[in-house]
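Hi there, hope your week has been kind to you so far. Thanks so much in advance, here it is.
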Amino acid sequence: MRIANLNWVEAEEYFRKNDIILLSVGSIECHGKHLPLGTDTLIPTKLLDLIEPQTDVAIAPIIPYGACDSQTDYPGTVSLGVDTLYEVFAKLTEGYMRHGVRRFCVLNGHGGNIPVLDRLAVELARKGCILAELNWWLMAWDLNPAWKGGHGGGEETAGILAVDPKLVRWDLVEDMKLKPVSDEIESTGFKSVRFKGVEIPMPRPVTDISDNGWIGPDHPNTATEEWGKDMLAACAQYIAEFMAAFRRVPLPERK
């Protein structure tokens, strides 16, 4: 059930009987040369299509932009930033609370959005509400460790293959090449470096780390459409089952 497809009378009927809603958010950012900028939005959008037949929870329109400031040097990447994204979600949850929503599930497609959702979850709990973050790519790792991946690697490439195989540019796939910080310090990820065997957080613009923009242990060449379809189907089923259980969770007392 899509909120955008209901009239206000139908919405009134839903909110009279239900205090739960499914929100979602992605991003528009670089995912290597081979994947579309909308990867973090396209995959959750596909998941919503798979979730809808399995639940009667109302589904709100996805927010296609997220917080991805470290990637804005790549052409086409646009970031709302943490502060703006927080304000958007604060207004959204405030609006739905007026209609009686107390349980918020958020299907998230981008790691940079997590700090915003963390903050919001704590604030909502103090208002007698509860928020669950459904980070699909992390969920997939737990459902099947073989699906574990990084940014723009095999996991997300498989996800896009499940959305539309034509969106993957195999001719532009490259090996991951991380730029070292110095002769002594090596880059190991988006936010980490290694010195004498110890990992140290060192967030930087991603163009200072990678030439092509994908980072992870899972080479894009390992991705298959079958992997993507199995993975997204499993995530969608899990989310539908989680939301059924989430409805039975006692709400926190108002502070």
Notes: Strands lie at 20-25, 58-59, 103-108, 130-135, 186-187, 192-195, 198-201.
